[in-house]
Structures are given as C-alpha cells and as structure tokens.
Specification:
Length: 447
C-alpha cells in the first residue's frame, strides 16, 4: 500500500483525492487542512447570497469525466427546473460549496478506509531515503511515499498593523464590522472588489467606496453570443513556434476589431483562446512571459475573468449613483492615525502625489506572488530545495503540469501551478489537471 499526503482540502485537494482513488489501487490518502475547509475552500465558502459563480453552471462540473455533474446536482436539489437553464445560470457560490461537500461525503463513504482528513497545519516536509516526513503544527509526525501540495490561494501578508486594514479579502467576516456611512478604500479593481461591493450591499452598507488599481479597470460582463467559436489560434501557433507576446497581442486586437465590424461579439475572440492558453504560455520564453505579466495581464484579466450580467448591473448602478469611484493609480504609502488611514497614491496620468482618507482599507490585489506569504511549510521546502519558485515570479517552478521535480514524488495542483501553466485557477482547468495528476501518480508509484 502506498501512502499519499495532500496539503489542503479546497477544491484542488478534494478533486485530486477523488481522481486518484478512482484510478489507482493500493493507495491510501491523508488530506491535511488547517481550517474547517470541506472541499469548498476560500472560493465557495462565502455565505453572501450575492456571491455568484463567474462561470455558467453547465461548465462547472467538478469532475472531468462527468460533464453534467453540477447541472444534475442543481436539478436534484431543485435549484434549476430544467437542464437547458444551466447554460445561462450563474449559481450562488455557496451552492457550489454544498455540491463539493456532497462529493467529499460520497468519496468518504465509498473509500472510507482509504481516505482520512486531519485538521492541522503542515509546517514542514523533509525528504528521507524512502519517502517524506511531514511535521504538523501540533508536533505530530507522519510518513508518506508522495506529497501533493494543494495549498491554494494566498493573499499578500499584512504589512500594516492596524485592525482597520483588512489583509485577507476572502474571509468575509469583516463585512459585519464595516458600518454604513464610512469610507472604504479597496486596493484592486478585479473580481475580489466585486465580491466586496456585493457583500457590503447585502449587509445594508451605504456609503462611499473608492477602488484603486494601476489601470483602474473593472471586470467585463458575460454575454451569450450565437456565432460559432472562431478558429484562428491553431494557425497562429503553427506559424509562430515561439510565441512573442507582441505578435499575439496584435492578432487578438485585429481579430476583435474584425469581429466587432462584422457585428459579432469580441468575447468570441477571447473565448477562442481559452482552449489554447496553457499551450501558448508553455511556448513563451521567460522574457515574453514576464512581458505579458507586466504589460498585458491587467487587460487579459478583465476580458477573460468576466462577471455574471446581474452582478454587472449591481456594480454599474453603484457607479452611476457615485457610490463607487475607481482610480487608476499606484499606491505609494499608507499611514494610520487615530482618525483614519491616509493613502498616498500617484494617479496614472499625473506626476504629483494625491491623498485619500479612509476609515477602512481592504487588500483586494488577488493571489500573492510573494513566496513569503505561503507560510512556514513553503519557506522550509524552498530553503531545502524540495520546491523552487518560478523565474517568472508567479508561483512554483514545475517539471510538468503537476510534478514539481523529476527527482521527487512531490506534486502540486491548482493555483500554485499558475506560473507554469498560467490557466490553473478556475475549476474547468483544475479538474483536468487533477485527472492528469492521478495518471502521473499511478505511473510514478506503481513503477
Ligand atoms: C473568491 C473566489 C471565487 C472564485 N470563483 C470561481 C468561479 O466562479 N469559477 C471558477 O471556475 N473558479 C473560481 N475561482 C477559482 C477556483 O475555483 C479556486 O481557485 C479553487 O477553488 C482553488 O482551490 P484550492 O483548493 O487550490 O485552494 P483553496 O480553496 O485556497 O484551498 C486551499 C486549502 O489549503 C489549506 N492549507 C494551505 N496551507 C496549508 C498547510 N500548510 N497545512 C494545511 N492546510 C493548508 C487552506 O486552509 C485551504 O483550505 C474562485 C476563486 C476565488 C478566490
């Protein structure tokens, strides 16, 4: 019997365990989580009714080989009336959390001797001659043949020691303490900002919100277009074996213009890239990857990560009523005093420094790129050379899409692997990756 440990019971850890148990025999899995996570993780644990998925239900099956699994679950639970609805339905994220819990419960029932969940933080992983030793925060030790890192999304750790500064934007408990009328400044204008706005509105907050990011761009909106998916990317890739970001950018721009002039939807141009994004990323050299991250990412993020139409309506009405002001600018420094928080920033088009006074400041800058934010386990594994940080600075360096190094049986899945794969954050990408991980584990452990 081979023993595997998974660190993290968010979606990535859950679905990796599920796929491995489906495929492999003679494997025992222990999943560690320092929180009460039950498969939902950060993303699907929100109790806000207004927090919806940003992908339609029909594309959100958690399981690669069961495309309609989530749709069936919604039907079984009377949350939709007929199957076709799932193509345009953005379910509440808390429903998705319940769906993932049902998969966890089912997995535990079917494989009860083979899967164990332990609620503790893993703080160290050491290589031994015949496997790996894990050390837990409570001093326990355990020994495994392989380790899967599924530690997930991490925010930038707190640099300002003040309880009016919210470091963790995904622990929505802080929404309760923000009273109506106060001025809230949010750093970041992406999907996390949208969650914060909707959460505050749901709690009855009325007041002034200011959101700032380098470009000040808000996410775009999903729309359902009828024309068939464009196909220009395979030809582009065939003609450009080494993808240069400038070439890719210009073809996407010209295709979008062409689509709009033919009364088609620009979203088709972006969506047609989706099946190829990992391939494109892997073909880019480090210079082009860094160029993309520095110059193109802000635009890609808002075009690719779109919000549900109803959500967009709420955001628009807040902007129209001047309840939300967005600023394109760079944060320079933050100072706190007894009355408020003073934020110094430089607007994108200006040279001088401006100041905003806030009652609360919320960090909504997304997933951290700083390895120090990933806790003691990563610090130790990086120091011991068991894992490496990718040269593009965006996450772990990988041997392939789930194996960290050909010399080790250490694997990673989910957002941690985005430096290597770029698209490994959303459910449709992670479920494919988990399936490939199961195949890799099966090969490696049964050699
Ligand atoms: C707010 C939000 C909304 C999203 N909405 C969508 C959506 O609508 N559609 C979509 O396709 N994708 C969405 N995503 C993206 C995607 O689904 C998530 O990135 C995915 O759920 C990641 O899961 P994960 O298990 O890798 O990470 P997480 O959910 O972060 O789980 C990681 C777990 O690891 C545990 N952990 C970490 N370190 C340790 C340690 N050392 N020891 C023990 N435990 C540890 C943590 O406690 C945590 O429970 C969303 C993401 C976020 C953040």
């Amino acid at each position: 019997m081979k023993k595997i440990a998974i660190t993290g019971l968010g979606y990535s850890g859950l679905i990796s365990a599920y796929e491995i148990l489906q495929l492999c025999e003679n494997i025992e899995i222990t999943i560690y989580d320092r929180s009460a996570a039950n498969g939902a993780g950060i993303a699907y644990n929100s109790h806000c009714n207004s927090h919806a998925l940003n992908v339609v239900a029909s594309k959100m099956s958690a399981i690669e080989d069961k495309a309609d699994d989530f749709t069936k679950w919604l039907l079984d639970n009377s949350l939709i009336k007929e199957e076709g609805v799932a193509d345009t339905f953005f379910a509440k994220r808390q429903y998705y959390g319940k769906y993932l819990l049902s998969i966890l419960v089912d997995m535990q029932q079917r494989y009860h001797d083979l899967v164990k969940i332990i609620r503790v933080e893993v703080i160290a992983c050491n290589k031994l001659s015949d496997g790996y030793k894990l050390t837990m925060a409570d001093g326990r030790l355990a020994y495994y043949d392989a380790i899967i890192l599924a530690n997930g999304n991490t925010y930038d750790s707190n640099k300002i020691n003040d309880n009016r500064y919210i470091t963790n934007p995904w622990d929505f408990g802080y929404l309760e303490k923000i009273k109506t009328g106060v001025h809230v400044v949010i750093i970041g204008t992406g999907l996390t900002l949208v969650d914060i706005i909707l959460g505050l509105q749901e709690k009855g907050y009325k007041g002034k919100l200011t959101a700032m990011s380098r470009h000040g761009l808000l996410p775009t909106t999903h729309q359902f277009y009828k024309e068939p998916m464009l196909n220009y990317v395979s030809e582009f890739l065939a003609n450009n074996p080494n993808v240069r970001i400038t070439d890719l950018f210009s073809i996407v721009k010209s295709k979008a213009r062409e689509a709009v002039s033919n009364s088609h939807d620009w979203r088709n141009v972006i969506d047609s890239l989706r099946p190829y994004t990992q391939k494109i990323w892997l073909k880019m050299d480090i210079v082009n990857q860094k160029r993309f991250l520095r110059h193109v990412r802000a635009y890609w993020d808002i075009l690719r990560h779109r919000i549900a139409p109803d959500t967009a309506k709420q955001v628009k009405s807040l902007i129209d009523s001047k309840g939300l002001i967005t600023i394109a600018g760079r944060l320079k420094c933050v100072q706190t005093n007894d009355q408020n928080i003073v934020i110094a920033y430089q607007a994108r088009s200006k040279r001088n420094i401006d100041y905003i006074h806030a009652d609360y400041l919320i960090n909504a800058t997304g997933i951290s790129q700083n390895p120090d934010s990933y806790g003691v386990l990563f610090k130790q594994m990086l120091a011991d050379g068991l894992i490496r940080w990718h040269e593009n600075g965006f996450g772990l360096a990988m041997e392939n899409d789930c194996l960290l190094s050909s010399k080790e049986n250490v694997y990673a899945v989910g957002p941690l692997t985005r430096a290597y794969l770029w698209e490994s954050i959303a459910v449709p990408d992670i479920r494919k990756q988990a399936k490939r991980l199961a195949l890799q584990i099966s090969d490696d452990l049964h050699k």
